[in-house]
Every structure is written in C-alpha cells, then in structure tokens.
Queue: 2 jobs
Job 1
Amino acid sequence: MNESLSVRIQDYLERLFPICRSITGEGNRKTLKIISELIPIEILEVPSGTKVYDWVVPLEWKIEDAWIKDSKGEKVVDFKNSNLHVASYSEPVEGVFDKKTLEEKLVTHPTIPDAIPYRTLYYNSDWAFCLSSDQYESLKAEENYSVLIDSKKFEGSMTLGEYVIKGQSSEEILISCYICHPSMANDSLSGVILAAFLAEYLSKKDNFYTYRFVFVPETIGAIAYCNIREEELKKVNTGLVITTVGGPGPFGYKQSFNKDHFINAMIEQVFVESGLEFETYPFDIHGSDERQYSSQGFRINCATISKDKYYEYPFYHSSLDNLEFVNGNQLSDTLSLYKKLIDKIECNRYYRNSYPNCEVMLSKHDLYPKKGGAIDPNKLGGKSELDIILWILFLCDGKMSLWDVSEKIGASIDEVDFVAKKLLEKKILNEVLN
Ligand code: ZN
C-alpha cells in the first residue's frame, strides 16, 4: 500500500466530507475548486431553465440554516450538526407546529435507529426534515415546535466540471463521477476523489488514449453534459462510472450493457491478477450515470469497479456512510485497481504486421527467444514467447485489437503487449492509429 497516497486521499476526504452539496449550488463549486488543486478542471455553468433533452435545468438551491426547536428554545434537530437533516431542495419554512402536523414532514431511517436518512425533493415544492429514530421518539405529542428552513431557490446555474487529457489517439475513454451528494463518504464523494486522483495519475503520463473526466451532478448533470458534448460523446465507446469505491466491504464490478465488451473481461483480469475476490453485478437498468451514457443515442459501454457498491451496504444513503466507514486506505486500494485497469486499456491498441507476405525470418531480427527468457511460460498459460510472437504476427492485421489477440491465445494482455512492444521496436509491427 502506498502510505503517502492514502494520507493525501484521507486529507481530501476530510476536507470535502462536510460540504453541503446538491444538484446545484455553492457546495458543488467549492468541491470542484478543491479538486482543482489536483487537476485543472474546466468549469461549465449551465443556467437554470436550460432545456437538455427531455429535462430542464432546475433553479439553483441555497440553504443557510435549518432547525427544529422545542418550546424551551432548545434545538432538537440542527442542520449545522448534519446537512442530511434537511431534504435537499426543501422550500423555505418558518412556523410553529405541533408534533402531529410536523410528523408528515419528518423522515426516519427504515431499519437503523441512529442513522439520519438521505432524501431529496429536487422536483417537488415541499420540505422535509430527516432525523434519527431516537430524535423522532424524543418529540412529544403535547409540545409545539418552532421550525425554520432558511433556504431559497433562484435563477442561477448548475455547475459541471470536465478535464480532458489528450493522448496520441483521439479515441476517448469517458470517466464520470457525481458531485451531488451532501455529507456521505462512500456514495458520491469516494468516487469524486478517486476520479480526481486517477486523473492526476494520467496527467503525469504519456497516454495513448484520450481521457475525458466528467464531474457532474447525478442524472440531470450527466444529461446536461451529454447535451452539451453530444458530438464528442457519440464517438465514445468505452467508459467508467466511478462511485462507491471506499467502503470496508467487498470489491465488485457492475458490467457494462454489453457483457461481451472487453472492459468487463479486463476488469475481471485485474481482480484475478491482484488475487482479490469480487462480486459481479450484471448490467441493470437502475444505477448511476451509465443510465444516460448507455442510452440509445450514446451506447457507451460503462462499467464500475466498486468497494461496497451502492444499494448493497446497510449505511447506503444515510449519515452512517461517513468517515468511520470510508478511509484513505480503502479508497487507495480501489484506486490501484483502476490504475491497473487503465494500464491494460493503454495496452489495447491496434497493430499491423509489416511483413504480411509469408513468415518473418525471426533469427535475422534476433527474435529467437533464449532459454529462460524474459517471460515466464507459466504466466502465459503455457505460451512461450515464440508462440506469442507467431500469434501476434498471424493475427495483428490492423483490425484486431491486442485485447482480442490476447483473448484468442489465452494470455494476459500485459504479456502480449510486452512482446508486441519488442516487435514494434524492430519495426516488424507498426501501430495503427484510429
Ligand atoms: Zn446516491
């Protein structure tokens, strides 16, 4: 484990966790500003009222304070203690209510008494408080409670962030995460931080592919981004939606809509080579922003590597999804898997045999492998380096990807890439750019 990396990640978790985010607002701008310390994010502000396909960008929401006070003036629920106490996009309210009237506006967690649930009211003109069952039980039937939500909705904008790292090829890999959840650590925030660190990693390398990192509010933000960057995204074939990557529980991955797409088998190869157990979640129509990116008009194969996947852990969408549940070490472990995956994606290129007519005279090019050469035959599923050379020269016609070659001959893409690079150096292979 990379200790200094975990420490850096932990620092960002602690700084970003307390911020009150939503689908719009200052919290999102502040979050992207902090992330900009790692990578130069471009900010796009989409004005309220902008039509994006079948949706309209909502009014901006701002909240200053909220509480419920008993008749003695004691705060029994206080937004300042947890921003989950107010359902996101709650209308402003100021008044006195008895418990019975107030009850309709109170939400508790269905199974965990000390958890504050997470609720949103993005497209309703309503308000609600979320509280623990213990807080709820402490409210007395005969008591009157003063209630304040100091919020407002106004013509503002929705904030999106993008960072494109240009590679040799114009072919893009989409990497998206969502910035819209308030103080929860695994859902939303862990994905934002992982994406930022992954982008930082890629920004320091010479890459073959172009990487498009997208930081948007879930659903409406992804829809707006698809609308704004429609032309670019229609050309993209492969993507990753990064979310719920920092829990203490199991690793897993959600498959892209085409389970035979290389990204799925490649992720499995990363897990197997890392000696990790993992859960497989087949593509499902529910989920995160792959719902937009995989829609008919875009059809981007988006997969997700997770650690304690959304829906699956008991603290999901509650105040217990916090920094006791998520930490820099766990997040750093998942980050290393994403890096390994990206390294494999980088190997997946197209090459053409420069000598298509009959066999190459290998000895002339010093390609007859010596005994105990660079490659361990056991690692290659019994394939010798000579086998791999011959298969590459047989299959690489500029149309078959190196991943498909590796699958066909039953070797890891890293090993096939190692041999391909040798052949490339000797100009026996040449690279085909898309
Ligand atoms: Zn969520």
Job 2
Amino acid sequence: MKKGRSAVITGNWKMYKTIEEAVSFVETLSPLIADSQVQVYLAVPFTAIYPAAEKVQGLKSPIVIGAQNMNDASEGAFTGEIAAKMLIDAGAKFVILGHSERRHQYGETNELVNKKVKRAISDGLQPVLCIGESESQKEKNETEQVLRTQILESLEGVERDKLSAIILAYEPVWAIGTGKVADPQDVEKEHRLCRSIIAEKWGDDIAQQVIIQYGGSVKPENASELLDIEDVDGLLVGGASLSPQSFSEIINICKGKLQ
Ligand code: PGA
C-alpha cells in the first residue's frame, strides 16, 4: 500500500447468502471494523442489495454495498438481466465487472466488459474491473500480453476524467478459489505492470490514482504480506469474505499500513 492513495477491501460473496444471512452479516461485521481506516465494499447477491444497503444506512456503517454483475443496456427486452439503474435504485454503489467466473463460465469478452464498464459509469455505478491470466497463459509467459489486452480493451473509450474512479482487480485465474495465492514477487511485478500500462495510455497522474486490488485466495494469513506491496491498494476477497471473523481480520490488517 502506498501512503496517500486510498485503499479498498472488497468482499465478493458470489452466489452465497440469503437476505437474512446478509443482514445479520452486516450487523456482526460493522462493530468489528468500526475504527478501520480502509474502505470496505461488499458485493452481495442481487436479492440482498436492498436489505443490506438499508441495514448499512440504519447502522451508519461505512460498508459500501454493491453488485457482482449487470447488463450493458440501460433497459429493454433482456429476460433475466438487470440494469445499472435498478442496482442503484436498490442501493448499490459499485459493481464487479469482468470477473473470471463471468468471463469463463458465461463467455464474457473484453468487448462486452467494456460496454458494461461504460454503462456503469454513465449510469452512476463505480466499476470494479477484474483482469487476470489463466494458468496456461502464465505457463506460456503470456501474462503481460493478456493483462495489457484486458486493460486496454475493457477501458477503451472511457473518458479520461472517469478513469481514476475505476478500481482494477488483478486476479490470477489459477489463484481464485484454489488456496494457491500468487507469489508476492509476482504480485508486485504484475501490479507494477498494470499501473505502467495505465500510465502509458492515460498518463502517470491517472495511473497513480487508480486503486489496484489483488484477488485470489486472500486469507487473514496472507493479507499482510500482500498489502505491504506498494502497488497493492487493497484486496478482492471471495471465500474469506463469507465469515465476519475472517473478513474483519483482513480489513483490520490494513490499520496502520496507510499512515
Ligand atoms: P477467492 O475468490 O478469494 O475465494 O479466491 C476471489 C474472487 O473470486 O474474487
């Protein structure tokens, strides 16, 4: 983490938790992180957005509620889909886009992710844009090319003054949900690379402001080492965000690292 740049820890619940479980999680987590200096985002299932956002407001908790996906259109005949405006209406402030589970299991391309990023921004949701190489791409030494293409294509045409509000999440696909966290030296290298790709295209001033999170098997045991890396401005946490105890431990590890 770097002094002066804000930090965000995001929990990605994926397809877990009912409304009741979500509300009780927020109630339990809030006092555990009361004096944390980091921003805490929680990407909950669609059904839990409204009740979780209401609970957060009622508790005056700093937790920010968001979604895990959305459609790229503003509205229309798209059975089963959800629009950015509907998420905002329910209380979402951000949306995870281009998660590897969406890219690999639902065929999302950089082109579609780019449309979603632009729609989220124009309708008022902050994107948390996920990128990352697969195991075979890593083995073939294609990581740099993959990250470059994902960043440039997913952010193509986004107005320069909107870029600094985007959170980038570097998540090596082989590290997600596997318990295999990336080597800190590799994380350092890839985060520096992501920032330099942004700097080359949009300028160093923008690159220095963009928050770049690491994601993939983050646990309380490895969070500190990851957060000590200068270009790691937070974490995207899947499995370990499902328990208030492990998620709060990760959040509280940030305490002091920002000063
Ligand atoms: P994980 O998931 O922490 O369970 O590896 C991370 C993610 O999918 O965002």
